[in-house]
């Protein structure tokens, strides 16, 4: 299998996320997946929260599955909105709040995603975004 | 086991769905199930979203299980409504928004369902509806 | 997401499998997955066995996950052999007997797999093999 | 939560495993868990097998859960042996063959485990062992 993202690229992304997480003083769980949501690399920073190991991976998966950042799903899954109830499907693997960001190569092809979890959803997104900026695909 | 829908019928339905999906420029996941919600045929069109592989099959299952199009469930599952929370049951196999349509034979017997996923819920329903129109049971 | 296998290629594979299945009089479940084991196309031939819908998809997944035909796993998973007990892992998604065959492009890259189920394991493999021969990647 | 293993230690272990994996020409999935089997770090080397992402993590978990290297379980789980069938328990999270090794601090306290998967079981163990040697806890 050839991936649209290499381990080296994933490690660079994680490194950038760690720098950002340290800068805000929030140790994070950080997951990078490929364009089919297969896990490429993961780290749990010291003193992070256990919940984030699972959630960070699922945020990355969700971004790939929907081809969008997970925070874009927030309005769509509220009561009365178009995708209300969707998080019950797909074997409980979807996360419908912020912290998963999509990675695209320079030509727009989906390369994978970064998922971050342990802080507030805004912090999670901010740290994931730092990872995205570090990606040169 | 004899089904109320043949593979040839299912393939015709999928063909009609593909034509409709192409006409609106949205590559779809399309699933056809029989009257017990067993999968008869499935296709993932090129460049579709991964989320739709699971969701399209579950939309078709949900239509058969409730004997109705899935969009009819939307008002029933909202907070305060009669079936609020139902999507958590059945092992997460229910989808409670549009895109699953019920197939009936000319005498009204349930033959199966079509589930479509990857576009907006309205697009999904539209493409599934094209499949239903192609069904002569 | 771009796949190493198109829907048209998957449909050609399934067509070849159906011809082979008809030639031996055994209606089959036939699944084609991409190189990350995402489902691309599936058919259940009329009068096939229900067990095969699940098993055919898992055979294809297993071939991709192990980068080999599933029948190669048979000696490895027997009592006392190297991978004894492996089928309990991976959420019950592995099938460790014949019927899943790996698809490679002409340059050797993994493109996906075909999984077939409903006959004897030899029949399943034979029908999957017919699909592989029809694949020009 | 404080762990008996830091992320930096886990990353050193993974680095040593990668060197060993490269030396034998087998790209691996490598997982490091803490003394409660929580995932600390994971990498999938380029061109590895997808099966190993799940299995490597479960090998590490199994080593921690049993407080032993996973290859020690092999004779115990064979037909007629004391733990026959145990891999079906624990939600399918146990791997009962080689490739998971236990990490202990210098005073003998369990610190976590390394799990490796994608090669033969002997290769997997060898690469995990290289990670253990790199651990100074």
TrEMBL record, chains A, B, C, D:
<dbReference type="InterPro" id="IPR052517">
    <property type="entry name" value="GlcG_carb_metab_protein"/>
</dbReference>
<dbReference type="Pfam" id="PF03928">
    <property type="entry name" value="HbpS-like"/>
</dbReference>
<dbReference type="InterPro" id="IPR005624">
    <property type="entry name" value="PduO/GlcC-like"/>
</dbReference>
<dbReference type="InterPro" id="IPR038084">
    <property type="entry name" value="PduO/GlcC-like_sf"/>
</dbReference>
<protein>
    <submittedName>
        <fullName>Heme-binding protein</fullName>
    </submittedName>
</protein>
């Amino acid at each position: 299998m050839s991936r649209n993202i290499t381990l080296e690229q994933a490690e660079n992304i994680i490194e950038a996320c760690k720098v950002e997480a340290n800068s805000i003083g929030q140790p994070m769980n950080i997951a990078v997946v490929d364009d089919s949501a297969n896990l490429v690399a993961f780290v749990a920073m010291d003193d992070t929260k256990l919940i984030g190991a699972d959630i960070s991976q699922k945020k990355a998966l969700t971004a790939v599955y929907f081809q969008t950042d997970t925070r874009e799903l927030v309005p769509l899954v509220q009561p009365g909105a178009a995708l209300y109830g969707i998080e019950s499907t797909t074997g409980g693997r979807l996360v419908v709040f912020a912290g998963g960001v999509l990675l695209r190569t320079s030509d727009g092809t989906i390369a994978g995603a970064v998922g971050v979890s342990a802080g507030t959803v805004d912090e999670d997104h901010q740290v994931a975004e730092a990872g995205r900026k570090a990606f040169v695909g």
